[in-house]
Amino acid sequence: MTLVTRLTKGYDRAVLAGLDVKSAPAELPPRYANTYDASGERTQSLLAPGDPLDISLELESPADALIVAPAYHELRSLPHVRYNLLAVSLQGILRTTDAEGRVRPATDPAAAASPFARPGSFVFFSEEDTAEPDGLAQALAALNITVLLTRGYRGATLYASGQVAHFDALPARPVDPTGAGDCFATAFLVRYIETRSLTDALRFALAAGALAVEGFGLAGVPTRTAIESRLARVAA
Question: How confident is the model at residue 138 (pLDDT cuts 50, 70, 90)?
Fold first, then answer.
């Protein structure tokens, strides 16, 4: 797996062990401050928008999957990379800020998503990322895009081929929801490439998301063994 990003001087690359990292230097990457209330609702502030990231990656053969997941607006369009399957996390793309630096949903989410919307691709975002999540999901699905709309402890909704299906979340003991959406999207794609089954991939992703909220920071990123164990426990 190859990660293309920007890293600040002195960044601890040990946390990226196991990845083929291709990085450009950055003075300051996108940074946020997240706070959560007793009900789990998040207030987010943008501390730094980050440097632009222009990606052009030559590969001997197309990547099995290209996952585009900007934290804010460091990408203005899709990278120049050959791929067999495209997935886009819209979370950062759908963000804007108010005068105090607090993160707000983009006023025109369809326009914000447009540079990254490609027929035949997969798109991931949360119902917290836009004021009308189902409307955006339906608009993207009408472009022949498979949409995964996550709903936190309420699970996820799949929009694909004119069909809408809801999947309940797996039981979890949440301590830190940060990064759960990224774990969900990555797990979904890994399993979809293996099985070509939307249902199998979604259940695998929901297990990954449940595990992700049970740990703090990178400690919450689940292993495949942990995901399979959680699925087996739920099925028992």
Answer: very high
Nearest-angstrom CA–CA distance, 182 and 193: 17
Cα end-to-end span (Å), the chain: 33
Rg (CA), the chain: 17
Which three-class secondary structure state does DSSP give residue 9? coil
Does an H or E element contain 95, and which?
Answer: strand 95-97
Residue scoring higher pLDDT (55 or 8):
8
Q: Compute the distance between CA of residue 212 and CA of residue 223 in angstroms, rounded to an integer.
A: 10
Cα–Cα distance between 68 and 148 in angstroms, integer?
Answer: 15
155 SS3 class:
coil
* H/E stretch holding 24: strand 20-25
Q: Which secondary-structure segment (H or E) carries 233?
A: helix 224-235
Strand partners, 32: 46
Q: What is the CB neighbour count within 10 angstroms for residue 147? A: 25
Measured at the alpha carbon of residue 51, what is the angle toward residues 112 and 100, in degrees to the nearest 5? 65
Query: Which sequence spans correspond to the domains of the chain?
Result: 45-235
Output the pLDDT for position 28. Answer: 80
- Helix, coil or strand: residue 123: strand
Amino acid identity at 215: G
Fold annotation for 45-235:
UDP-N-acetylmuramoyl-L-alanine:D-glutamate ligase (3.40.1190)
The pLDDT tens digits of the residues spanning 158-184 come to 999 889 999 999 989 988 888 899 999
DSSP state of 160: E
